Amino acid sequence: MFNKVLISLMLITATTKLLAQKAGAAVATEIIAGEGVSVRKVSTDRVIHRFFDTSPLSPSGRYLALFRMPYENKSPRAGDAGEVVLIDMKTGKESVVAQSRGWEVQLGANVQWGKSDRELLFNDVDTTTWKAYCVVLNPQTGKARKLDGTIFMASNDGKKIASYNLVNSIYAQVGYGVIIPKNLVKKNLGPVDNDGIYITDIASGKTKRIVSIEDIYEKTTPSIAISNPRDYEYYCFQVKWNPQGTRLLTTVQWSPIGGGPRLRSVITMRPNGTDIHTAITPEQWAKGGHHINWMPDGEHLSMNLNIDGKEGLELISVKYDGTGLKSVFSPGSGHPSFHPKALPLIITDAYPDEPITKRNGTVPLRLLHTDTNREENIAEVFVSNTNGEFRIDPHPAWDKSGRFVIFNGYVGNTRNVFVADLKKILK
Prior knowledge:
This protein is mainly beta. The protein has three domains: about 10-50 and about 350-425, no CATH class; about 55-185, no CATH class; about 190-200 and about 210-335, no CATH class. The protein has helices at about 215-220, 280-285, 425; strands spanning about 10, 15-20, 25-30, 30-35, 40-45, 45-50, 65-70, 80-90, 95-100, 110-115, 120-125, 130-135, 145, 155, 160-165, 195-200, 205-210, 230-240, 250-255, 265-270, 275-280, 290-295, 300-305, 315-320, 325-330, 335-340, 345-350, 360-370, 375-380, 395-400, 405-410, 415-420. A hairpin with a 6-residue loop joins strand 12 (about 130-135) and strand 13. The chain starts with 9 loop residues before the first strand and ends with a helix.
């Protein structure tokens, strides 16, 4: 599909110089493709792909599903609509296939694919009732239907979706959920029994809460119980399927009601809410860490975590029940994910302030070889030094074939999406 000249796509080479701006001042930068890697800019103007754990390429590889924000330097306002964008990777044609009012800056409307190119999934909000829900759209015909629940991540077979509470997600971390009027959003005081993890069957559209935060608090092993839980706000944040659809992970975080630092743990379970384990304890996470993900075997997880007591993070693996914790690469950074075909490769990016960067708003896309402890940059991309809600994360994501990596950048003073072809170096 990529062996033809793609209309309106831009081949980025090591000598391609582009301009970006930050805080109104022009900053010269480059997007540099690594040796043997070709990179194409596939869309621009306030556009992002979702996250590092799902591929925006459709099951056939023909279409790329993205999200365009109506604006990119201010917080979303309830009822403001962005656009669900489709890129035909054969012709290069860009189409707006839907609008969505269910978005935030970091992940857009959580646009992703179901079981085929005829099922595109994303969040929206009914502004008459302020109910958030997932849409299933056939982008070829325009036919759409509503599901009962929201979507954070679809299972690999495209049959079910998992979500945490995306409405009160703003109290967990801004940027990942949906926005409704704030007076309609309630905080969770203590480990509540009316919030948790939700599974929706795509065929029927029916949603079920499989576990509450109270269930997790009381049943997970090792225990995460504390002496005064009612003095804390408790939230789930993110939920992810393993590739086999046999387990889920989520994070539970709690912070003092009056304000103060939060504590977090990684929790795993079966899709019916049973067999709950603490994979990463709050004591382990408190030493430093971020960005948990499933590994291809569906039994182990990867994460950036400090396990040696020294400055910086290691990229670790751990079994779903918390056993077998070990370092697999050092240093860790950014948003790491293992190759989907279980090759000894990890793709990750970095935050602009992490030690491995040049500290100029440009970050590397690192290809890590776990068998030889070698790394190479497949690209360097400008993201600016913006922090917080409006930061630009590349979120490098493998396509399901393991040949392409899709990532975000900030070029020409706006967000863009790029596709890197790793065919030559994977040989």
